[in-house]
Amino acid sequence: MIKTTIESSFIDPGHGSASRRVGYPFAAVVGHRTVKQALLLLAIDPRLKGALIASESGSGKSILARAFGSLLPPRGVDCGRSRVDPSRDRELASDTIELPLNITEDRLLGGLDLERTIATGRREIAAGLLAQANGRVLYVNDINLLDSNTATHVAHALDSGQVHLEREGLSAIHDADFMFVGTFNSAEGDASSLLRDRVGLIVDSRTECSADENAEIIARAFQFDKDPFNFADDFAFETARLKSDIEAARARLPGVRVSKNQVRQISQIGMRLGVEGNRADVFALKAARASAALAGRDAVTEDDLVAAIQLVLVPRATTLPSPSEETKEQAPDLEEANHREAGDGDRDSIPGAIEDLIIQAIDAQLPKDLLSPAQRIARPARTGKRIKASTSIRGRYVRSAINRTRDARVAIDATLRAAAPFQLFRRAQGDLNRKWSSGAEAIKDAMAPARVKIDAGDLRFKEFKKRSGILFIFAVDVSGSMALNRIAQAKGALTRLLQQAYLHRDKVALITFRGEKSDVLLAPTRSVELAKQLVDGLPAGGGTPLSAGIVKTIELARLARLRGTSRAMLVLFTDGRANVGLGEGRASRTASTILDELRRLGALLGSEEISTVVVDTKSRFVSSGDGEALARILGARYFYLPRADAGAVYDAIASITRVRREQS
Amino acid sequence: MYALRPPFLKMPKELKSKSAISNERVTSRSSSGRAVYPFTAIVGQREMKLALILSAIDPNIGGVIIMGHRGTGKSTGVRALADLLPPIKKVKGCVYACDPYRPNELCKDCADRLSADRSLPTVRGVVPVVDLPLGATEDRVCGTLDIERALVDGVKAFEPGLLARANRGFLYIDEVNLLDDHLVDVLLDAAASGRNVVEREGISVTHPARFVLIGSGNPEEGELRPQLLDRFGLYTQITTITDLEERVEIVERRERFDDAPLAFRAANANEQGKLRRRIMRAKKLLARVEIDRELLMLIARLCVSLKVDGHRGEMTIARAARALAAFEGRASANAYDVESVAVMSLRHRLRRDPLETVDSGLRIEQVLSQLIPMRSTPAALRAVR
């Protein structure tokens, strides 16, 4: 039996085997109550658009996501214009399309179908993955590593339900109405804010399983490995029940009622949590109705509201839910606040109810680091199964060029255009040749299926444009008394850098270090707005953990590289010598340990190709050459700028980057 | 002071006489078959709505850029605009939809036809609203060699791109601050000259490309190139609505629309028709709207005290003020009009200090209140209900 399975999968690796391949059943996954609930709500109302699932690695989130597609009721036959020839699409058999992180723009959006175009002489479109996902589930694993370009396209398709294809001489609009499921390990960074905004449900399920559950997970995994078919059969009944539940809920959904007061509660909580935009409110209402439909109710109850708040609003919170007096103080406009206060007075009962709802939802699930986005990005990225960004063919295909660079890819559209005007001539010439040549050659010529004749001289190559510029990481020592000065200086220089950044697609990040650790104050960004919002006043004082600051820098640079920004530069603002090492205890504080640490970190900075600048802010009067020594150890350029002068810092950085840009 | 009345604003005679052009177009769906959320059903966001309406009335204002929070209805607003635009007359069979009443802006084909036949066949059509997707390649934006005709007939024919399609209409770029630099260059060239010059792959074509740029984006995603920013006439900032009742209204309307789009549209048809007719009347009135010297002086003083570089700021305020007067059915612009449009006309033209934390809008409001002692309500946007 085993033998036949292998053979058949060899012979028919395409959709034929998909029916035989069996996935881990959704119903057999232990735990993950919230994730399951979110996916079921999405199945009931696909207008929720999608779910982002954050959790620790190896917790079975991707199994759930992959099994999700098989739960959906069969779709209608109509695939619209994006219908693709089933024999050409090996994944048509399944309801889930997986989007690989390293997808190119032409495969994502669609492009010229080379084979058919040449065979027919007419432009033929190969639908992109987004169009193929129409009516199905689009699944991305490790969505935090999706490059911003791809994320933008996915977000746009989620928003409009369509893909606008204007590429390579093709112009088309494809339907791309899909359910989006993205999973990621929240310790490795967050999903793109664009995507977070466009999907309805966000689940952070970092729940610890009990020992019993853990045992059950392992036991089931063994069973499945041993005999997937029987294992799936064991859960066939539960799978069928889930499916029929979903179908029944879908049928019930249009009739689910919601009161005005309940809508008001949703909006009020959205406001209290500081949720940006009004889209989340709309999603929350949909989630509440779907939840009611799932429970077999015809009207939304408090439980449904709690579920909606938990899955839609709480993950988007930007402010701590506080007692109502405080929110009113924060209101941007006094007049408005008064107005609202008056409004609240009319409905005395609501605030209490809302308080309860928020507390319930937050009790159910509130990530501890909800309000410090910095921590989400902090930990080092795992390597291994990650796809490494290869440089020459990543980026965006912008135009074609006649000269071939190393690793160049043929630009089909441009090549065909170059060859096109000569086709009549070449065909005529071909006929002529055939008359003169004889035997084998003539037969070969006649059998050639290609109607388009392309010469080597017609070849055009894709010119890619990498959007990545340089990531400037400003590491600011906030241990000493002049800390505030330095922050102002760094902030001024980085906003100035950003204002020039549109040219080079540069990004900036700001990290601070004091005491024993280093914090990310501003995650890599291109936004002047965000940089301006940086707080000036910070707690200062304590030790100088220089090493911690450099470690954090390297982590940020590695993460940025995974996301396509390949170069990084560290600008270190400090006035003194490091006196706190990476380790714990007194031993780590000895001068020799720290010196050794810094030497090794300096080497690491070098091997990571992070160029470093030390900005010494200590007054010359008391300076003992520590800054210069540090620069030597780290292999860094040294600037002595004791006055908080943002302009001078900017000029210094600009002079170095100009050289670097010319070199690369 | 300035040439405020471009000749084309005079309506062609034919169009004037047929004042009873049926407004009830059946464009309940966008070009791609999806029902579009009606403009009049958008809750709040008055500044954005006003800016869009003004640029529909006078394309010469230079378009609108809408920047602000995610999920606040930026693209909903722009997509809904298409529904409100009154039909235009164009040359029959022309791919660029040339304006038969502006002989000096015809494409080469139409110009040839005009000199041969002494007249051009016209047809009524909709104003194009063209999406420029972020993943577009240069060849599709500018246009390039028509490969099919080249393959089949061996002819070097030009295949028009998005710029050609957008001629006399609107070109919409969502996430405009993420647009690639090479596309920005192409856009800037065309926007500045009103023509698209294509010299590639053995093709040499120049065709009219006058379009109104509409952009939207979230400033947190990145900065916009200053040259491109300057091209936009009006800059509107959009924020999350914080009024509870309005928020509830948004959610309820959206849910009703999602449940039954066509019925929702039908319920709004009356309002839509009213607004569409009002815009049409304003377009006709625009050519006659006066702006007196005193008001021009006020505009100039405003720009001088805000240290606005160049004259685009003054021009934009004057044009937008006239469009607003026309929208309100008045034949002369007044200080109220200037006040209402000043912030959105100048917000992106003030010199920027990297460490400045005061919002540009507030600075403009401050100067306005110094210049106009008896100010009515700030940002009197009651024009749009």
What does this structure look like?
The complex is a heterodimer of chains A (664) and B (385). Chain A is of the alpha/beta class and 664 residues long. In chain A, 47% of the residues lie in helices and 15% in strands. In chain A, strands 14-13-12-15-16-17 form a six-stranded mixed beta sheet, sandwiched between helices. In chain A, strands 2-5-8-1-9 form a five-stranded parallel beta sheet. A two-stranded antiparallel ribbon of chain A has the order 3-4. In chain A, strand 6 (162-167) and strand 7 form a beta hairpin. In chain A, helix 3 (33-44) packs parallel to helix 4, helix 13 packs across helix 14 (279-294) and helix 15 (302-313) crosses helix 18. Chain A is globular, with a radius of gyration of 29 Å. Chain B has 385 residues and is of the alpha/beta class. The longest helix of chain B has 26 residues, at 261-286. Residues 1-32 and 377-385 of chain B have low confidence and may be disordered. Chains A and B meet through helix 5, helix 8, strand 6, strand 7 and helix 9 of A and helix 5, helix 6 and helix 10 of B.
Summarize it:
The complex is a heterodimer of chains A (664) and B (385). Chain A is built from 28 helices and 17 strands.
> What is the succession of H and E elements of chain B?
HHEHEHEEHEHEHEHEEEHEHHHHHH
Structural class of chain B: alpha/beta
Helicity level of chain B: 40-55%
Large-scale geometry of chain B: globular
The N- to C-terminal Cα distance of chain B equals 33 Å
Task: Provide key terms for this protein.
heterodimer; A: 664 residues; alpha/beta; 6-stranded mixed sheet; B: 5-stranded parallel sheet; 14% strand; globular
